[in-house]
Structure formats: C-alpha cells, structure tokens
Amino acid sequence: MRTLVIVSHPEISQSGSQQFLKHGIKDFEEVTFHHLEGCYPDGKINREIEHQLLKTHDRIIFQFPFYWYSSPALLKEWQDQVFAGDNFYGPEGSMLKGKEFGLVVTIGIKENAYRAGGREGYTIDELTRPYQAIANHMGMSYLPVLAIHQFAYLSEHEKKALLINYQYYLTGKQPDSFDNRTNWLVNQLERTDRSLLPEEKHESLETLVSEVAARQMTLTELKMTLDEC
Amino acid sequence: MTEWLVTELAHLEEVSLDYKQKALFLATIELILEQEQRQEQFEAKLDGSLWSPSNW
After folding, report:
1. B49: which chain A residues are within 8 Å (Cβ-Cβ)?
2. Which DSSP helix (H) or strand (E) runs through B17?
3. Which of A33, A93, A208, B15 fits a 20 to 30 Å CA distance from B28?
C-alpha cells in the first residue's frame, strides 16, 4: 500500500507540529509527503502531476491546520482544480474509487471544546462534513479523522504516542483494530534499525518480538475457543 | 514474564539513540499490557462459560 499525504501549510518550516509529523514519517518509503505550497508557490497547480500522484497511491490523506473550520486556501484551490473534469464525477467514474481517504488536522483549541455545549459547539466530524461528502462522492472509504489538538502543550510521552498513531494512520491496515495494530507493531519492531541499540541488546529485542507475536497468537486462539462455546 | 518484557522495553527505550525508536518501544509496552489484560479477560470468560450449567 502506498500513501499520499497532501499537506497544505503556508509556513511549514515555522510549524512545530508539521515538522514533527514530517520527520516522523521520513523513513517510510511507502509514504509520499507532498507539500502544496512548496510545490506550487505561485498557486498554479499542475493537474496532470496531481492526477498521476492520486492514481499511484492507495491511501490519500489531506493534512492541514484548521483555519476557521477549514483548510488553508491552496488545498481548497487544489480540490477545485484537480477534481474538475470527468475523472471524478460519480462513484462509477471516479479514479479514486476504492481508495482510502483521511484527514490529519492540527487544531489550536482543546479537544473537549468540539462538542455540543462545548465552546465550539460542534464536533470535528460535523465540521469536516465536506470531506466526508467528497469521499462518498468519489467512492472512497473515509477514515476517522486524526485530530491533533494543541500540539505545543503535549507532554513528551503524549508526543511519542502521537507519533506512533500518526505512523499507523498513514501506513497501518484499517480499521484500527487491536489485531491490526499488533501486526503493524510487530512489523515495525522487526524492521527497526538495530544499529541504534547497543549490540548486547539485539538478542533481547528478538525475544521481545517473538513474545509479542506469540501472545497475539494465544489471544487469537482464545477468542476462537470462546466463539465456539 | 510480562514484567520482564516491560522492564526490558523500558530499558531499550532508555538506551536507544533514536526518538522514533523510543516511541516504538513505549507503544510496545502499552500493547503488552493490553495483551495481558485481554488474555485475563478471555480466560475468565472461558472459565465462566465452561462452568455454566446452561452450556452443559
């Protein structure tokens, strides 16, 4: 599976959250990080290049800061330009049919403000309805939004957890079930760079990986037994 | 065994030279604890089911 992250941010080099996410995914060859303002500083989008990118990726992610309940202007311009034409009208004719579509949204206001009765009054799901409509129209599977609230106030522990969640959002099998997450983590442990650890720790890492996988097998067997009872 | 796994992962997180790898080890600790909890719940449910007269 290949993932295309279409990032819109007018000052990405100044954004702590965007730099954190960008560096967090840079070792994943299956992810294409595509910053619109960097590629099109004059705002003139190349439809052919964008269509080719969309065709060659299976999971499409829009990543942007929440500016007045919407995306920065260039991402909207991108939608208007790229989605024009016959390739996108109706689920039967859409080149995006069968692909997955998700949002990674950075938000400056705390999570509990986004609910009925909260300071913002609406949930993030309600405020991102246009994107759900796009996915529906194109015949895409819509993924739950990965909303990142007040990144600058996250603790180090929370940032590390966010990193893993972000990596999974871009590269893990959906839905984000316990089994799928476990398989993904085992795969990451298997491919993690051993040279970043002291040599005497390599063997215990292998033991750990085997044990996690074995425990998952036990859980699967227990579940099957329970289902039969 | 779980205790050994968690302790070992915490030590790996400490000695790793890479932030992303540290994050991976911390996520694995959470996973192992969740695995243990689920196993206990499944085993308890299985015990309850085996000892339930309605299932005899």
Report:
1. 226, 229
2. none
3. A33
Cβ contacts (< 8 Å) between B3 and chain A: which residues? none
DSSP string, A25-69: HTT-TTEEEEEHHHH-TTS---HHHHHHHHHT-SEEEEEEE-BTT
Alpha helices in chain B (DSSP H): 2-15, 19-50
Does B1 contact A at CB distance below 8 Å? yes
> Could you say which of B16, B32, B34 has the minimum Cβ distance to residue A196?
B16
ipTM for the whole complex: 0.90
Residue A93 is predicted with a pLDDT of 67
Determine, for residues B12 and A197 on separate chains, whether the beta-carbon distance falls below 8 Å. yes
**Mean pLDDT, range A148-174, rounded to an integer:** 97
| Contacts of B17 by beta carbon, 8 Å cutoff, 6+ apart | A196, A197
Residue pointed to by tokens 């819109």: A8
